[in-house]
Amino acid sequence: MEKTIYEKMDEYFKKHEKAGMCLKGINILSTLPAFVMYPLLIGWLFLKKDRRLAAYITIPGAGFLLVSLFRRLVNRPRPYEVFGKPAVIKKEKKGRSFPSRHVFSSFLISMLWLSLVPLAGLLLLFVSFVLAIVRVIGGVHYISDVLAGALAGIGVGLLTVRSK
User: Fold this and answer.
1) What is the DSSP string of 32-74?
2) Which of 40, 22, 51, 9 minimizes the C-alpha distance to 109?
3) pTM to 2 decimal places
4) Whole-angstrom Cα distance, residue 100 to residue 146?
5) Alpha carbon of 13 to those of 85, 102, 149: distances in Å?
6) In whole angstroms, what is the distance from residue 82 CA to residue 95 CA?
7) Mind listing the pLDDT tens digit of every residue in the chain (164 residues)?
8) Could you tell me which residues come within 8 angstroms of residue 107 by beta carbon, excluding any fewer than 6 positions away?
9) Which of 45, 51, 75, 106 is the most exposed place for a label (fewest CB within 10 A)?
10) Containing domain of residue 82, as a range?
11) What is the count of structural domains for the chain?
12) Secondary structure (3-state) at 103
């Protein structure tokens, strides 16, 4: 993201306060589904005594830890740090922008649901795309952060689904 684009977005949301509130609401609403659906998925697999339960816990968990470690090592500053203007989606966190863990988790959980209940997975994928867009427009991530998070989430999801 270039500084001029970030500044234009910042100006827009300063002039249109309701749009900023709407963006913040969409951020919350697009974050919640995946994080509600993952425990439901794990509970469902547990109740069914499904043999995939262990893989659907351990592989995503390992993926999340690896993404977290990678973020710590890279420690990429966030757009609001680089451009010196507050993000629309308020964050106090410094660095650790690449890749986006929210987007990683959302795409990963979408892939897991896609393998078991395709319609639910497709709906979650749509919500994941919305989340990725909102995280960039909201000024907390660069496009490359959300793309990397999405690709990593899809990759770990496919690895999980294909594990036997």
Assistant:
1) HHHHHHHHHHHHHHHHTT-TTHHHHHHHHHHHHHHHHHHHHHH
2) 40
3) 0.93
4) 5
5) 12, 22, 25
6) 10
7) 577 777 788 788 878 889 989 989 999 999 999 889 999 999 999 999 999 999 999 999 999 999 999 999 999 999 888 888 778 888 778 899 999 999 999 999 999 999 999 999 999 999 999 999 999 999 899 999 999 999 999 999 999 999 96
8) 125, 128, 149, 150, 152, 153, 154, 157
9) 51
10) 3-162
11) 1
12) helix
Distance CA 114, CA 119 (A): 7
Contact 4, 108 (CB under 8 A): no
The answer for residues whose C-beta is within 8 angstroms of residue 132's C-beta and 6 or more apart is 100, 103, 106, 146, 147, 149, 150
**What are the structure tokens assigned to 52, written together?**
């995939």
Per the omega criterion (within 30 degrees of 0), is the bond before 99 cis? Answer: yes
DSSP state of 84: S
CA distances from 136 to 15, 38, 66, 159 (A): 19, 24, 22, 27
> How big is the chain, counted in residues?
164
Are 76 and 98 a contacting pair, CB within 8 Å?
A: yes
